[in-house]
C-alpha cells in the first residue's frame, strides 16, 4: 500500500462506489477493481475502514434503538407532501 503516484481522480471514482461495495451491490468486475484499489491505496484503505466501521455502528445501533412501526408511513406522507409543494 502506498501513496506514491496517488491519483485523486481514481480515488474519487472509487469513493462513489464505496457504499455499494460495502453493501455487496457491485458486480464481480467492479468489486474486484474496488478491492484492488483499496489494497493499493493507503488513502482509500483508510476511507474504507472508516466507512465500514460507521456502517457497522449504525447497523448495531438500529438493533438497540428500533424505529416505531409508524415511522415508514409518516416518512412516506412527508415525502408525498413535499412532492406536491414542488
Structure description:
The protein is mostly helical and 86 residues long. The protein has one domain. It is 73% helix and 0% strand. The protein contains 5 helices and no strands. The protein has helices spanning 8-15, 18-22, 28-40, 42-64, 71-84. α3 packs across α4. The chain starts with 7 loop residues before the first helix and ends with a helix. 9% of the residues are buried.
List keywords for this structure.
5 helices; mainly alpha; 86 residues; single chain; 73% helix; 0% strand
Summed up:
The protein has 86 residues and is mainly alpha-helical. The chain is built from five helices and no strands.
**N- and C-termini, Cα separation:** 48 Å
User: Structural class of the secondary elements?
Assistant: mainly alpha
Strand content: under 5%
What's the β-strand tally?
0
Oligomer: single chain
Give the H and E element order.
HHHHH
**Can you give the mean pLDDT?**
85
Shape: elongated
| Fraction in helix | over 70%
Q: Helix tally?
A: 5
Tally of domains: 1
- Radius of gyration from the alpha-carbon trace, in angstroms: 18 Å
Largest sheet: none
Residue ranges: pLDDT <50 for 5 or more in a row? none
Give the SSE map:
Layout: H1 8-15, H2 18-22, H3 28-40, H4 42-64, H5 71-84
Helix pairs in contact: 3-4
Amino acid at each position: 500500500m502506498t501513496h506514491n503516484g496517488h491519483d485523486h481522480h481514481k480515488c474519487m471514482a472509487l469513493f462513489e462506489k464505496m457504499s455499494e461495495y460495502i453493501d455487496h451491490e457491485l458486480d464481480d468486475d467492479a468489486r474486484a477493481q474496488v478491492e484492488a484499489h483499496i489494497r493499493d491505496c493507503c488513502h482509500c484503505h483508510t476511507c474504507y475502514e472508516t466507512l465500514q466501521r460507521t456502517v457497522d455502528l449504525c447497523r448495531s445501533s438500529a438493533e438497540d434503538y428500533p424505529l416505531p412501526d409508524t415511522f415508514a408511513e409518516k416518512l412516506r406522507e412527508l415525502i408525498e407532501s413535499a412532492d406536491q409543494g414542488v
